């Protein structure tokens, strides 16, 4: 498959964003105080690495197949919760900030996929970008679930 100049530029921009996501989740997994949040960020980071890998394949001319009818990871994610709803300690505030920032970033990246998808001629590329966008939404949903379980959404 041959990408146009414009399509190539769009994939490169998306790659830059995915690299930021990988780096950010590595940094946040390291920085989070609650082990359960560290684990969530580490898990999401693996998805971001896969996104980066998929985009590299597209640039190299082959579009990876997307899994069909795969259950969303948000359906099976049930965070135990570490912080009490009443607590207002520094660790909780710290972790809450990481969550809020991550959700904002996922929303931004998801929007970029949604916009860029409309520019591609290839059905397979559109399918892949749509799949990645759905996973970004899943990331945001899981982090939201974490916030809810930790009394961070009030
Ligand atoms: Fe991603
Ligand atoms: Fe993501």
What does this structure look like?
- It is a single chain.
- The chain has one domain: Ferritin, core subunit, four-helix bundle (Ferritin, Up-down Bundle).
- It has five helices and no strands.
- One fe (ii) ion binds next to α1, α2 and α5.
In short:
By secondary structure, this protein is mainly alpha-helical. It is built from 5 helices and no strands.
Cofactors, ions, other ligands: fe (ii) ion
Distance between the termini: 49 Å
Low-pLDDT stretches are none
Whole-number radius of gyration? 17 Å
Helical content stands at over 70%
Query: Could you name the CATH homologous superfamily?
Result: Ferritin, core subunit, four-helix bundle
**Overall geometry:** elongated
How many structural domains?
1
CATH topology: Ferritin
Please report the total strand number as a whole number: 0
Sheet of most strands: none
Class by SSE composition? mainly alpha
- Fraction of residues in β-strands: under 5%
Q: Which architecture per CATH?
A: Up-down Bundle
Q: What's the level 1 CATH class? A: Mainly Alpha
List the defining traits of the structure above:
elongated; binds fe (ii) ion; Ferritin; 154 residues; 5 helices; mainly alpha; 72% helix
List the helices and strands and how they pair.
Blueprint: H1 5-31, H2 35-59, H3 73-76, H4 90-117, H5 123-149
This protein binds fe (ii) ion (FE2) (2 copies).
């Amino acid at each position: 498959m041959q990408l146009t100049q414009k399509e190539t530029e769009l994939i490169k921009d998306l790659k830059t964003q995915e690299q930021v996501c990988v780096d950010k989740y590595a940094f946040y997994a390291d920085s989070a105080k609650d082990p359960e949040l560290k684990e969530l960020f580490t898990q999401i980071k693996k998805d971001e690495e896969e996104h980066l890998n998929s985009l590299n394949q597209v640039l190299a001319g082959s579009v990876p197949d997307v899994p069909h009818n795969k259950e969303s990871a948000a359906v099976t994610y049930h965070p135990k919760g570490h912080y009490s709803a009443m607590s207002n300690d520094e660790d909780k505030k710290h972790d809450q900030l990481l969550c809020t920032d991550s959700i904002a970033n996922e929303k931004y990246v998801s929007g970029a996929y949604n916009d860029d998808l409309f520019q591609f001629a290839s059905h397979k590329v559109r399918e892949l970008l749509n799949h990645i966008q759905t996973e970004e939404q899943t990331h945001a949903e899981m982090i939201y679930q974490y916030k809810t379980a930790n009394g961070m959404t009030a």
